[in-house]
């Protein structure tokens, strides 16, 4: 509290998530695309769920999302980014800030995040092994050979703990070989 206020105003800009490009890259960048936050429905009972779904359909349409956007701005807040709903407009000052942004996809959907840190379903030994070989990789010279070694270690890790992962999810190898025996999610 006794420190002098020396901070001056500054401008904030926006930029697209940069893509990594090269011989081993099979897709452009994917990132989190949730400029409107996370919106969901808690399933309480059929009547309430149907009302929530009606509201979600309204919110995800042009009229509903325009109302939402206008309310955010009218309340003195800034929108988190571009609208993912077509034809929703925002004041010029925000339109200019976000004019260079466009949707590129979301990497957080399964199975990407599920396999990111070892075997799925939070198998702790697998997660520890992932940590060790990933730290080793980042401490290395990061050559293509180092990346190949990391990828081989990651694949081995996932495969070594596959049975533990399946068991944690209530799935047996026979379920994978015969999916017709049990409905998904049963």
Q: How many angstroms separate the termini?
A: 58 Å
Shape descriptor: extended
Main sheet? none
Query: pLDDT below 50 for ≥5 consecutive residues: which ranges?
Result: none
Overall mean pLDDT: 82
Helix content, binned percent: 40-55%
Total number of beta strands = 0
Number of helices: 7
Radius of gyration: 23 Å
What sequence of helices (H) and strands (E) makes up the elements?
A: HHHHHHH
Class based on secondary structure composition and strand pairing: mainly alpha
Provide the β-strand percentage band: under 5%
Describe what this molecule looks like in 3D:
With 186 residues, this protein is mainly α. Helices cover 42% and strands 0% of the residues. The chain contains seven helices and no strands. The mean pLDDT is 82.
How would the blueprint of this fold be written?
Layout (H helix, E strand, L loop, with lengths): L45 H14 L2 H13 L17 H6 L26 H16 L4 H17 L1 H7 L4 H5 L9
Concise synopsis of the structure shown:
This protein is mainly α and 186 residues long. Helices cover 42% and strands 0% of the residues.
What attributes characterize this protein structure?
single chain; 186 residues; mainly alpha; 7 helices; 42% helix; extended
């Amino acid at each position: 509290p006794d420190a002098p206020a020396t901070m001056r105003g500054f401008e904030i800009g926006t930029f697209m998530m940069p893509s990594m490009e090269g011989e081993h890259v099979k897709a452009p960048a994917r990132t989190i695309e949730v400029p409107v936050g996370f919106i969901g429905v808690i399933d309480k009972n059929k009547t309430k769920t149907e009302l929530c779904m009606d509201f979600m359909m309204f919110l995800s349409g042009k009229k509903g999302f325009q109302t939402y956007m206008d309310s955010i701005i009218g309340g003195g807040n800034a929108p988190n980014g571009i609208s993912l709903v077509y034809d929703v407009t925002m004041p010029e000052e925000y339109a200019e800030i976000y004019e260079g942004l466009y949707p590129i996809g979301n990497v957080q959907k399964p199975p990407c995040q599920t396999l990111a840190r070892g075997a799925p379903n939070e198998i702790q030994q697998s997660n520890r092994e992932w940590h060790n070989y990933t730290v080793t990789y980042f401490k290395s010279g990061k050559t293509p050979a180092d990346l190949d070694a990391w990828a081989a270690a990651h694949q081995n890790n996932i495969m070594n703990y596959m049975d533990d992962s399946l068991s944690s999810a209530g799935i047996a190898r026979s379920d994978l070989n015969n999916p017709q025996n049990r409905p998904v999610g049963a």
